[in-house]
Amino acid sequence: MNYEKVLIGISGSIGAVEIHSYLTEIQNRFNCSINIIMTESAKRIVNPDSLKYFIDGYIFENMFDANSDFKIPHVHLPNWADVLIILPATANIIGKIANGIADDLLSTTAMAAACPVVIVPNTNEHMYNRQAVQRNIQALKEDSYIFIEPEGEGVQLSTKKKIKGAMPSPKELVSQLEGMILHA
């Protein structure tokens, strides 16, 4: 398997401020076509217009953002994609997917996806360690969702501390994605 068509889901974690670096790294390594889904809270952190310069596809901001290629986004986007990467993934989006709550385009698409769904958590360390969040992560792993976390600890943007629950660096993320391709 190769990642020629990548769907990125951006949720409202502070880690979204670094999404441009991740898009560049993914694009450079896989030379892929990228479409993006943004949650409402993600749009409060990153201006969707700024992302247009980093991708060749579309940015979808709600359930009704249809176009000629993707008339029913939550159905057509995951059918198009070789992989859906939720980056960064908040505890909220993890909980929604784990509990079958499909109330926005990202959660609905993640549940409708036949392609692999890769979830890259980025939460506060205390939130990440809560039993409810860990239970949701475990449930999703049991349902064949794939989690990518930093080797060791990542750096939390809001505190600059090394913690479990932060995203891996863009290079580390791409390295782990490459490993997934090799072992597919």
Concise synopsis of the structure shown:
The chain is an alpha/beta fold and 184 residues long.
Question: Helices and strands in order, then pairings?
Answer:
Layout: E1 5-10, H1 19-30, E2 33-38, H2 40-45, H3 48-51, E3 59-60, H4 73-80, E4 83-89, H5 91-98, H6 105-112, E5 117-121, H7 125-129, H8 131-142, E6 146-147, E7 154-155, E8 162-163, H9 170-182
Parallel strand pairs: 1-2, 1-4, 2-3, 4-5, 5-6
Antiparallel strand pairs: 7-8
Helix pairs in contact: 1-9, 4-6, 5-8
Please provide a written account of the structure.
The chain is of the alpha/beta class and 184 residues long. The protein has a single domain (5-163), classed as Flavin prenyltransferase-like (Rossmann fold, 3-Layer(aba) Sandwich), CATH 3.40.50. 41% of the residues lie in helices and 17% in strands. It is built from 9 helices and 8 strands. It has helices at 19-30, 40-45, 48-51, 73-80, 91-98, 105-112, 125-129, 131-142, 170-182; strands at residues 5-10, 33-38, 59-60, 83-89, 117-121, 146-147, 154-155, 162-163. Strands 3-2-1-4-5-6 form a 6-stranded parallel β-sheet, with helices on both faces. Strand 7 and strand 8 form a beta hairpin. Helix 1 runs parallel beside helix 9 (170-182) and helix 5 crosses helix 8.
Count, helices: 9
Indicate the radius of gyration in whole angstroms.
15 Å
* Number of strand elements: 8
Number of domain units: 1
What best-fitting shape do the alpha-carbon axes yield?
Answer: globular
Poorly predicted spans: none
**CATH hierarchy: architecture:** 3-Layer(aba) Sandwich
